[in-house]
Amino acid sequence: MRRLSLLPRAGLFLFFAYLFPFGGTFNGVVLPQIKWVTLVLMTIIVALWLVTRWRQKWIWYRTSLDNVLILWAMAFGLSLLANSEVWRRILIGLWFVGVYLGVWYIVQDALANGALKRGLLVDAFLFAGLLVLIFGYIQLGSSSFDLAQFRLPRPGSTIGNPNSLGAYLIVLIALAAGRAAFPRNPAERIVMGFYTLVAGLLLFFTFSRGAWLGSGAALGILGLMVLHQRDLLSWSRLRVWWVSLVPTQKNGLIAGFLAILVVLILVGVLFWQSFSQGGRSSDLRLNIYRVAVDLFVEKPLTGHGLFTFGRGLERSQSMPPQQPHSHAHNVILNVAAELGVFGLIAMFVTVFIALGMIRRNWREVTLKDQAALAGSTAAVVGFGVHHLTDTPFMMVTVALSGMLVLIVATAPLKPVPITATWRRLGHPIAIVGLCVLLLGSGFWSARVVSRYFDALLLVNEDDYRGAAQQMQAAIDADPALSVYHQQQGFLYGMASLTMPDSAENAIAAYENFVKLEPQSAVGWANLAGLYWQVGRQDEAIVAMENAVEAAPLSWQLWFNLGSFRETAGDLEGARTAYANALPAGTIMYPAWQETELRREIAQQTVLSDDAQMAERIIQAYITQNTLDEAFADLWWVSREKATTANTVIYMIAISLIYEPPPADYFEDLIAEAVLLSQTEEDQAWIHLGRGWLARYADDEAGALSEFDEAQSLIAPGIGRQDYVNGINFGYALSLRYVAPRQFLPQVYYPTANPLLVYLLENSS
Fold first, then answer.
1. Which DSSP letter does residue 151 get?
2. I need a surface site. Which of 23, 32, 530, 636 has the fewest CB within 10 A?
3. Structure pTM?
4. How far apart are CA 648 and CA 626, in angstroms?
5. Taking the CB of residue 741, how many other CB atoms lie within 10 A of it?
6. Domains of the chain: total
7. What is the pLDDT of residues 489-511, one digit of tens each?
């Protein structure tokens, strides 16, 4: 059978260069413009495949996983039937599973009929990987490093998430290393060796610990395959080989071994130290694992449905402040929670069959396919190991990377034709039918998403009501997708601030949303704020009680409940709610001084050390009193340990009050704060410091201007996230773009540092 000619080869390379770095990323899935391009390209590829196999009279061949797909179909079907209330969310997952199934059969078909070669697929993937590496290093070049504070840039390249990039790089490294280990010529060994090192260095900076483990496993397997190919897996043969080397070769190998050992020690130290970093301790994963186990115990046979883990996690954890996740960070637990025992059986049978097929292929492989087979086998192992600590296959790019190497590693070297009559007839009908169904539903979904996205674009013109009204077309077309109701309610809620008659529309939208997502604290809180706005106080209190029940760790929601109860005259109920809203730092917010009951509750709480420092600084600054010398000396010494922008700004305040140094010292402090700043809140601290300096220089207008600029940087807007990572409710759990802000202004949900808010309030 003829191989691909030059033009189709170039098309394959270009398609890979589009798909993996761009089309298959979250942006590629979420943004309708990219979705349309991807769907058109998918249609062209399916059409070319069908025309080619018809004109060249291709034969249908069996694949290694044909039989196990029946088990997967049973797991998916039973899970859907047992969880019909979330059928719309499950269908999202099933659509992507269908795409991967179509890719599996189309690529296997092209390989079996000789139109594609394993090496060509690997080369096209490595070509696409160049773009990912280039963008990754561009990000590194524009980022700041602070190894002393253990602060690395963690690039995401075009893929976005560093952990997902890590999963992609495992595959890239394994395939490049396979080319270097089994080169077609000496030049290829050098080029692919350099490629491996460049990709490995980028992987290091992702600081994806699971990807580090996965890449280590991949390179370890590749090393064993090299030894097997050279018949060096026994100690006796290794000794004979070692003796045969000349001293220069031995010294080079020893030096290389020592270099690898040093790298492993360094990575091991960083790996261990990383667990002491905020947000990267083992507790996060262990809590998610616990939820996955609990979900499995609830429905052990069928699970809760494909693509529903994020919903179960939201029900089991307090969101906010905890972060939404769409997966269990462990593929076994994820399958158990979503598909139950039947899914686990299908997964373990798949792994068993795949490993058996890889073993058979390695025994039968010819010299020309060694590099591709060795690299893809290593990638499959590394990919699997990584997914025991994370599950980035939720991103299409990562899933297709894993699918590609699984195909290359397991596709039979000697394919067996389909002979049974029923399969020869049913197989092509099923595959073509699947392609038509996927493409048809994909274009329908893209059309609905385009309407939804066009409505959101009106927000840039502050036409909230118009955006909400235009979104109705998407809701009418797809009423079971909860995110459409959520966003419409949010937009009507924003519009109601200036057009009160929009409040009832917002309430109706949020009522529809919480019917579909009753575990959503954000939905209940916004509904409560809207109820309160229109005077439905009893319903507002009940809705806010639902919100705090869903997110008991959110002090802001407890504060809202206390405020509602206090206004309604339920002082004891308000007192109880306020008592749950009292982390030490929060009482610095001015809202705690607005009523007698709040002041009473706040006075019973001891300020944190930072809050006490800020209060003493601002009181001394306002009253022009001097600070206690011992206190000032203590914080003057801490100047040497300044690691954040706000710490440096405190030094400015102390300097102004306690023996002010020369003016150029303040310039140095501001410059240092700028270097330490990473967020808009950091910039607000800097403007606060500049305002203090301006006031000290009797430039009151300049001071007020700086304070106003600081206020604008922390003022919540629709384009600024209030609930950090809350945007994942749309992106990761619904695969839809959403407004970054989660809570309506009708809900009290301050996000800026309470000390910063306090200092600005008292400085202005």
1. B
2. 636
3. 0.89
4. 19
5. 21
6. 3
7. 999 999 999 999 999 999 999 99
